[in-house]
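Thread: Newbie trying to understand structure tokens

Hi all, I'm a second-year student working on a class project, and my supervisor (Dr. K.) asked me to get a predicted structure for one chain before our next meeting. I've only ever worked with sequences, so writing a 3D structure as a token string is new to me. If someone could post the tokens and maybe explain what I'm looking at, I'd be very grateful. Here's the chain:
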Amino acid sequence: MEASMNKADIADILNEIGTLLELKGENPFKVRAYHNGARALETLDGDLGELIAEGRLGKVKGIGAALAQKIETLYETGRLPFYEELRASVPEGLLEMLEIPGMGAKKVRAIHEKLGITTIEELAEACAAGRVAELPGFGKKSEEKIAAGIRNREAYSKRHLWWSAYAVAGPIVEGLRKLPQVERAEYAGSLRRNLETVGDLDFIVASREPGPVMDWFVGLPGVIEVTGRGETKSSIRLEGGMQADLRVVPPEQFAFALHHFTGSKEHNVMMRQRALARGWSLSEWGLSVVEHGETGEGGAPPPPADIRDESGVFAALGLSYIPPELREGLNEIEAAEHDAIPELIRVEDLQGCFHNHTHASDGRNSLEEMAAAAAEHGWAYLGIADHSRAAFQANGLDEDRLAAQIEAIRRLNASGRFPVRLFAGLECDILADGRLDMDGDLLRELDYVVASVHNALGQPEEEMTRRLIRAIEHPCTTMLGHPTGRLLLAREPSRVDMARIIDAAAANGVVIELNANPRRLDMDWRWWSRAAEKGVLCSINPDAHATEQLDFVEAGVRVARKGWLTREHVLNTRSLAEIEAFLRRKRG
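---
Reply by user tm_fold:
Sure, no problem. This is what the structure looks like when written as tokens:
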């Protein structure tokens, strides 16, 4: 039987049904049944299709006969009329309110029932009028938090995660390159500089026949509006709200246009100043001699002719090539002047990664499936770090379940089934006072420990800083996970003195994670140069909750490059033997 939906997709729908029922005020037991069913499906060992074919799905703990029937329908057809009708019965605005931090289904339902609010705009007005604070269970602080969440959401809606933007831009660039009229095509802007979030998309094309290129661009599938159409520039708005601009230039101008529209503004200003010091003008059209009088002097020699790529642009100004991700107007010009741009880390340098979850906590795959996926990446090792018990919402492991997982990992390694060494780790919660959620002999049985904060994220800066430092100083802490807890375009980072955190990590030999989940990318790229100078190692971890999320390491590598990191700065570029030795030393 060919499945129309896999178990992960079906679990998502079951969870959404539970949320929709809660929004409608259904019986809590019924709500919980759908969430429990989703959890049972996520942690299901074996093939879902076989269970259905053999009539055994309804006997799985957490999945009764009625739920099994719905799962079978989704598996076989990809649709469920009950779900479609339920979703249609709930105003879309209520679902959007769930995206506001702190707004769970109970609060959204209360606001809807008590105030008749069905949209975020109405909710913002109610907050401004003080009506939300008057509701039982809310108060002034809750109202202020909701209002701030709405304001942030409006600001965030103008930007997009790098990962999402790249998923849109990549196919467009490939399509442009296949056109017979196109000699070269690249995306530019903040996407090319690997910023964590992106506003608009910019495409630069070298062609002497712009007309057909423009026709192709404005006719792309998913274009909901053509906001501008000219001979050499067109602008479109895509589904999802993303704006995209295309500029077509003659081939001899391509390198200059690509450099200019890649930016940043600060980098371009520094480059123009360097050109002026040589008596030249640098623009998106090229290099030219400044006319006499503009700088008070004249007679500058002509710039090099026939510059065909960005390396030539930099070389003309006495600089080695500066990769796009470093062009932020910081110290890249000085480094390039002294030929001191480092060889930045690449995805292929990674030998494995840490901080990955299985269905023992809130992941979607088994140990075996994660090991097989790591082998497909060509990695030598993979660290498993499921949640600890304090993360109850993520089905965190208690001592018995953790001990069982350690033993399962050892058995799997001993079996030789996969050419990947699994390391037994734990993402151990840092409690509000800085203690680790789990302590004692069992932590010392692990190969490594990732210490992370998941609650009380709003602590004052000094308190949060002391909390993290106490965790860093714990002898079992191997690495600090997602240090600020930020969720890009959704949740602001915790206030923390990152300079002191880096110093504490250096003093205690603790690795700091670069959490490569595209929604986190935490620690921020602006801090990695300082960390490297202090001798703090980085571990690029995908925080994978499913096999396909191991691909997130690419986003992490791009951020590491932006932070000037080389392979020597990153723990998981090391060989298996080197990692084993490192972890042994860390455990003492």
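A couple of things are worth pointing out once you decode it. The radius of gyration is 27 Å. The longest strand covers residues 421-429. Feel free to ask follow-ups in this thread.
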